[in-house]
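Task: fold both queries, return tokens.
Query 1:
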Amino acid sequence: MEDINASLNSLDDNDSVAVAVAASAGIARLEAVRFRAIAQLSRHRDGVGSVVQEVAFALSVVDGHATGLVTTAQALTTRLPRTLNLMDQGLVSGFGATKVATATAWLSDDDARAADALLEDRLPDKNTDQIRKAANHAAMTTDPDGATRRSEHSRAGRRLVARQGDTGVASIEIEDGPAEKVNAAYLRINREAHALKTSEETRTLDQLRADVALDLLLSGQGGANERAEVFLYLDLNTYFGLNDDPAEMAGHGHIPAALARHIASGPNTVLRRIITDPLSGQVKDLGRDRYRPTAGTDEFVRVRDRECRRPGCHRPAQTCDIDHSVPWQFHGNTDAGDLIAFCRRDHRLKDAPGWNYQLTPDGTLTITTPTGQTHTSTPPPLHEPRDTDELPPF
């Protein structure tokens, strides 16, 4: 071990990243071995519940963790062989595989294998939140009717929970609330917290958000009381019920088509017309019919990007800064070809020494890290690319 530590202490930045990546790949391969061993134990015991307790004792983990290990092991070795193979290659971690198993647990065996096939090329190089969203989308695509029933069941289980803590604190949580309302509520709280954050205000934004939320619950009054909104993306064919492609809610992820139509037909919903390139599905322009007009370029960038554009960050674009990819002082332009949405944390990271950001006209962002690693993100298309002969007559 001392020799290994001595070798690690001599690494430069590039080699340090390379060793960390190689170690993570090796851990993923070992986790695949562990899942196979747990699945074999479960098969020997015919899947009895006591296997969970045996795994919990043997691996010194709590029962909830052991349950996740057993159910994921069973899914990977029966219903998700391609995901398990990606673990063998060191391309997906055990935690990522658990996200796939959870997202596809409600599918039939055949549908789970179909979703597994859809995901094979979408999981490598993705973080666990991206894997969760991709797996949910694949599951909804494979069984849209089942996704609708599952969504209805989950939303029916909403509840408010208060948890008492120590030292005079407690927590309050809305579990399984409707995603559109929860996201809109958070955005309102966040905006009002920012409005209260003056130079004289000593509370942090986290403290302000908590205080605003409690004030709203107790008195119905917060801070600035700005109108909140969520961005829901569905194409016209989905809206009219001509297909059941999953829609997407910025900051949340994919939702079933039936739920998207329900939200889009709500009494307080403001519909927006978004013009896309039919062959790529990318946003090209915005319709101007809207309840309240905003600055056109700012609005276009937020709608195009949906979320913070750093790969793996899912803060909604409504809460992000609009920033130049090429800094203004270096002749960056204030237009959609140079502006991009970043949350405040990633906005600051962009200006750190050694980080380079390049934005192409189609919205593709390439980030180069100080060690020369490159990471690319492209705004997701509003719909799947279509052939010209598939376009509707209107």
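Query 1 returned. Query 2:
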Amino acid sequence: MLSRAHIDRVVALALEEDAPWGDLTSEALIPENAVARADLVARERGVFSGGEVFEAAFRLTDPRTDVQLVVEDGEWFEPGAVLAVVTGPARGVLQAERIGLNFVQRMSGIATLTGAYVAEVAHTGARIADTRKTTPGLRAFERKAVRDGGGRNHRHSLSDAVMAKDNHLAVLAQKGVSATAALRAAKDLLPHTTHIEVEVDRLDQIEPVLAAGIGTIMLDNFSLEDLRAGVAQVAGRATVEASGGVSLETVRAIAETGVDVVSVGALTHSARALDLGLDVRLDAP
């Protein structure tokens, strides 16, 4: 999902946005032959994510720059840890610094938040999954970060799976078409490998959906009591996903109801950037 070609395409756009006609500051102040060595340093505890993306920012700015990653994606680190070492022409290092940091801070922030959610449900059988509530153009980066934090990815795009939500069901009801009939008709049209998920917001919607033989049922904004009742009603006939009202404070209780998946939009839409810095060594050659 995150190929080198995709990384280079997105990072190149970011670099172009940041320095469309070059880095005036570095070109005016820094000698052309100056060399810099800088450490990517953690200011707080977290999970590392985005090493390849960080490296690409420097490589695409100046191919002579070398980036040595000290930790791997998915690895926890403590404050003060050196996560990567960057060595190369000083102008290139300084020009790429902000873009490299922007990506690795964002991705590490998502991975760290995901890791916190995963830890909360580790004693249950529930998986933590992301949603499509991602930054436009950065979905593959952000979903890689979720995986690095120990989470799972939901469908990547609208083209990957069928997911009938409340608005889909509302349109069907407006037309007088039952959910069961519509879902059965869809199954007849789709390849047998296509997964189907349906969102419900009431217990009485579960049986009509299950009657169509769908693979996953999402219980959206259910109370804990209704989640337990929904899991009992489904009784293993489909994967049960809980969604809505999920936070670090509530996720443990939600997972303990017996659901298979807890999807959390906050993993990507509310994660803060982790505090990482690029410190140029004063003793560099």
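Both queries returned. Flag for query 2: The chain has a mean pLDDT of 95.
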